[in-house]
Specification:
There is one protein chain. The chain has eleven helices and 15 strands. α4 packs across α5 and α4 packs across α10. The protein is 29% helix and 25% strand. The chain is globular and about 60 Å long. The chain folds into two domains: 174 residues, Medium-chain alcohol dehydrogenases, catalytic domain (Quinone Oxidoreductase, Chain A, domain 1, Alpha-Beta Complex); 135 residues, Rossmann fold (3-Layer(aba) Sandwich). The strands form three sheets. Strands 3, 4, 5, 6, 7, 14 and 15 form a seven-stranded mixed beta sheet that branches. It has a six-stranded parallel beta sheet with strand order 10-9-8-11-12-13, with helices on both faces. Strands 1-2 form a two-stranded antiparallel ribbon. With 341 residues, it is of the alpha/beta class. It binds nicotinamide-adenine-dinucleotide (NAD) and zinc ion (2 copies). Nicotinamide-adenine-dinucleotide binds next to α1, α5, β9 and α8.
Length: 341
């Protein structure tokens, strides 16, 4: 079957790969929709692992239910792509997201488990989640990044009336902003280096305002809005300037939730965290409960995430879509791939 695989630095190729074979355990899914994630972009930029077929945000239809007695051929599903061991301290405490094995065999993130940039995939049966009829394939492909935002905002522990800055207006930043507002923040601001994305965060109704992170008056603007800094920061970029701006815009004693990822070590002024007694809280992925909660929030129409989708493209357009998403000027937030298009 046709797939899109990493070929080199910022380069994909259309590649024939073997179709998944039933092993009586894994669920085989005919993929309908797959989201392009900001994390996928890091791999594409790094150019490896060569041959990786990404796509860990997928929705589809069961072709083979594997060992899941409650599933049948034709059921509409999505899945947590992760591969927790279920034995370690993290797994046993209900936190499979920080199990050290959780990404080893992750669907769409490990060479051994090709993801949704192909028309069919096999995934761990215990991670498959059935979809209600009123959650569309596009919405279902958005569950995974939505759950990342929910997890980050829960860790931020936002109190009603607090002022929150979300750094980075990609999909992770925007869903985090959405949940911050739902938690009762009185002011939700998104900071961006990309003007088009900053403006879009307000136009889409998830940010009250946006701030231009490249503006020399950025800190002046932060203080004008907050007096003494934001109560909570949700950092959704991962690069050094963004993390540094999290440390400098949070009020003393405040909390910074680090969601953004950098594949390389970065230099940040930790002394600010020391002097201001900041809490730095990492946030990775989601629990299964949070993932299912996002499905339910969509089914109950309590959140609307399709507004973040820019376009639905075929496999041939994946390369151009990554280029668009990394242009630094496009306002596209989420591009969905239909591997059968
Ligand atoms: N922790 C997790 O579980 C988890 C899950 C998914 C994604 N991520 C990471 O979160 C980050 C965001 O993901 P995404 O899909 O939204 O990515 P994205 O690349 O679409 O969005 C990042 C945004 O940050 C903006 N930006 C860059 N530098 C900035 C700065 N100094 N100040 C303000 N804005 C700046 C960019 O213009 C871009 O719009 C990525 O690093 C991704 O790897 C983490
Ligand atoms: Zn993702
Ligand atoms: Zn574990």
């Amino acid at each position: 079957m046709r797939s899109v695989a990493i070929k080199g630095v910022k380069e994909f190729e259309i590649k024939e790969i073997a179709e998944p074979v039933s092993d009586g355990k894994k669920v085989i899914i005919d993929v309908k929709k797959t989201g392009i994630c900001g994390s996928d972009i890091h791999y594409w930029v790094a150019g490896g692992p060569v041959g990786l077929v990404m796509g860990h945000e997928f929705a589809g239809v069961v072709r083979d239910p594997g060992d899941r007695a409650d599933l049948k051929v034709g059921d509409r599903v999505t899945a947590l792509p992760i591969s927790p061991c279920l034995k370690c301290h993290a797994c046993l405490s209900g936190n499979p997201q920080y199990c050290i094995h959780t990404w080893d065999q992750a669907t769409g993130l490990a060479l051994t488990n090709p993801g949704g940039l192909a028309p069919r995939l096999a995934t761990r049966s215990d991670m498959v989640v059935k979809l209600p009829d009123n959650v569309t394939d596009e919405e279902a492909a958005m569950v995974e990044p939505t759950a990342v935002g929910l997890h980050a905002v829960r860790l931020a522990d936002i109190k009603v009336g607090e002022k929150v800055l979300v750094i980075g207006g990609g999909i992770i930043g925007l869903v985090s902003a959405m949940f911050a507002k739902m938690e009762g923040a009185s002011l939700v601001v998104v900071s961006e280096t990309n003007r088009a994305r900053g403006e879009k965060s307000v136009a889409l109704g998830v940010a009250d305002e946006w701030l231009d992170a490249t503006d020399p008056k950025f800190m002046e603007n932060v203080m004008a809005k907050t007096g003494d800094g934001f109560d909570k920061i949700i950092e959704c970029c991962g690069n050094a300037p963004a993390v540094t701006s999290a440390l400098t815009t949070v009020k003393t004693g405040g909390t910074v939730v680090l969601v953004g990822v950098s594949l390389e070590a970065i230099t940040i002024p930790t002394t600010i965290a020391v002097m201001h007694e900041l809490t730095l809280q990492g946030a990775i992925a989601y629990t299964k409960e949070e993932f299912v909660t996002c499905v339910n929030l969509m089914a109950n129409k309590q959140i609307e995430v399709t507004k973040f989708i820019d376009s639905v493209v075929g496999l041939e357009d994946v390369q151009a879509s990554y280029e668009k998403l990394t242009s630094g000027t496009s306002d596209a937030i989420k591009i969905i791939v239909d591997p059968n298009k």
